Amino acid sequence: MIVCLARRLSLLVAACAVALLPLAEPAAAASRIKDVASLQSGRDNQLIGYGLVVGLQGTGDSLRSSPFTEQSLRAMLQNLGISTQGGESRSKNIAAVLVTANLPPFASPGSRIDVTVGSLGDSTSLRGGTLVMTSLSGADGQIYAVAQGSVVVSGFSAEGDAATLQQNTTTSGRVPNGAIIERELPAKFKDSVNLTLQLRNPDFSTAVGMAAAINRYAEAQFGGRIAEARDSQSVVVDRPKMADLARLMADIENLVIETDVPARVVVNERTGTIVIGQDVRISQVAVSYGTLTVQVTESPTVVQPEPFSRGQTAVEPNTTIDATQSGGKVAILNGSNLRTLVAGLNSIGVKPDGIISILQGIKSAGALQAELVLQ
């Protein structure tokens, strides 16, 4: 019996000891370098071209309103050995389009990329059309890709005598894997002397922390420092001797760093969207919010004349005006953290448009310790 009591007491003491242990703090948010920065020489390059979409079901350009479409059609037919002398074309199955694409970094000839087409004339729909072979040029005027293929349009439109239904846009579409790369970029990744990493969200703290993480890796692997933060957006990494550049970049982009961003409040007045950053602070301030709603209702009354009289039927106006005021509560906001700030705004009981007005007023009063971005 004594042994059993001793065992129970020992288990109870162990449980109390476990309960008194401090809880572990949550780990700080961290990200890989590849998620917060990109290689400067590994950026996309924009391509553009002018082409024709054929095979439309009567939804193409009217050649009188779009003379450039007819000129392009005649030039294409002449290149194919077909004479176009005499007579005017009245085809409605062709449309002039602008073709755009992004040439990915380190793309090699023969690989395929997606292209986007958009109507230039008065075409009503590109659905069912086929893009004719179109050359895509870069900013230097060189041709880097050739596009051709069926146009995929996600929108549709239906029209009747008294109603019209349209969803999305029918005058633009995509050609998946529609362009073949014919020329590679002149720059070579292996020929680079150094690497320049560009932060997607410029910040000095993040740039310095990234350079420090890269230098810790370099000291362990190469015995020296190779990274330097140039400014708030770029970090330059010197290439060590006898180091493979692709392997070096693969190791660097998987390093984990802690990111930091300035306190910012983003407000979109059109959609009523409000995004508040974690580090937003508000000095102690009193806020009152109230809305005045005025409703005007017209209820006209028809007045009939007496029987067998010479009077006429008349309409007597009847207007009712109601004015109501809601809100008007006064709350003291002292946003030491994001949760306190949100709780204080919700205690007033306002809608997102009201919160937008309150945030703008707090910023004007100098109590919002953050950047207010209006979209």
Task: Describe the structure concisely.
The protein is of the alpha+beta class and 375 residues long.
Distance, first to last CA: 75 Å
Question: What is the number of strand segments?
Answer: 23
Indicate the radius of gyration in whole angstroms: 34 Å
Mean pLDDT: 78
Overall morphology: flat
Number of helices: 7
Low-confidence stretches: 1-28
Series of secondary-structure elements, N-terminal to C-terminal: HEHEEHEEEEEEEEHEEHEEEEEEEEHHEE
The proportion of strand residues reads 35-45%
Please list the strands of the largest sheet in the order they lie side by side. Answer: 3-4-5-10-7-6
Helix content: 10-25%
Give a description of the structure:
23% of the residues lie in helices and 36% in strands. It has seven helices and 23 strands. Strands 3-4-5-10-7-6 form a six-stranded antiparallel barrel. Strands 2-11-13-12 form a four-stranded antiparallel β-sheet. Strand 4 and strand 5 form a beta hairpin. The N and C termini lie far apart (75 Å). Mean pLDDT is 78; it is low at 1-28.
